[in-house]
Amino acid sequence: MKKIIVIDDHPVIVVAIKACLEKTGDLSVIDVSDNGLDGLEKVKLHQPDLVILDLFLPKTDGLGMIRRIKAVSEKIKVLVLTGHDEGLYAAKAAEEGANGFVTKSKDMNEIVNTVRALLAGYNCFPAEHLIAAQSRAPYSKAGDALASLTVRELAIMRYIAKGYSNKEIAAMFFISQKTVSTYKARVLTKLKLKNAIGIAEYAREMGVI
């Protein structure tokens, strides 16, 4: 029996995934969590075979969670499950060490098939989006600038856009407020924006939040 943990703050999604996986008879959702900090503790406790991870969790850097899970054990497979743009986040998730990426718009059977593929030792990403992210071909200049952000810059940008203070972001990422300011300055420079209001407007226009 393969052990799985689901970290997602949408109860309906969690219930649906759990039901579909456990119908197979050989996959068991041994625990669930609605936030990253609690989820990571459960990963450490149970040492599952696979973690299904929502990228955007309350008070958590979802992309950064991938590395934290892998730090517990490289043997743990990580499947990113998100409702956000494949074109940007698939490549970022792969960069962080995820083993697979699927959107919540996919049929549940496809999610189950992806889980099986990961457990069998395969990595599963939407290949066309990884290639696109590397070539930058389908992006406008604005999108190209967004794709140039590092994983951490992108994560912090999202919280700035949502109105979090430097102090709140620093506590969330376990970094100093000065470091948050440095990341903010990099984001402003790369995106050619003037302030946090500009970041918020840009993030809404690009569908990042």
Number of helices: 11
Mean of the pLDDT scores?
87
CATH superfamily of the largest domain: Response regulator
The overall number of domains is: 2
What percentage of amino acids are in beta strands? 5-15%
Topology of this structure?
Layout: E1 2-7, H1 11-22, E2 27-33, H2 36-46, E3 50-54, H3 62-72, E4 77-82, H4 86-96, E5 100-103, H5 108-119, H6 127-135, H7 141-147, H8 151-161, H9 166-173, H10 177-191, H11 196-205
Parallel strand pairs: 1-2, 1-3, 3-4, 4-5
Helix pairs in contact: 1-5, 2-3, 4-6, 8-10, 8-11, 9-10
Task: Describe this structure as you would to a colleague.
This protein is globular. The protein is built from eleven helices and five strands, in the order βαβαβαβαβααααααα. Helix 4 links the parallel strand 4 (77-82) and strand 5 (100-103). 56% of the residues lie in helices and 13% in strands. Helix 1 (11-22) crosses helix 5 and helix 9 (166-173) packs across helix 10.
Keywords:
209 residues; alpha/beta; Rossmann fold; Arc Repressor Mutant, subunit A; 2 domains; 5-stranded parallel β-sheet; 5 strands; globular
Outline:
This protein is α/β, with parallel strands linked by helices and 209 residues long. The protein is built from eleven helices and five strands. The protein has helices at residues 11-22, 36-46, 62-72, 86-96, 108-119, 127-135, 141-147, 151-161, 166-173, 177-191, 196-205; strands spanning 2-7, 27-33, 50-54, 77-82, 100-103.
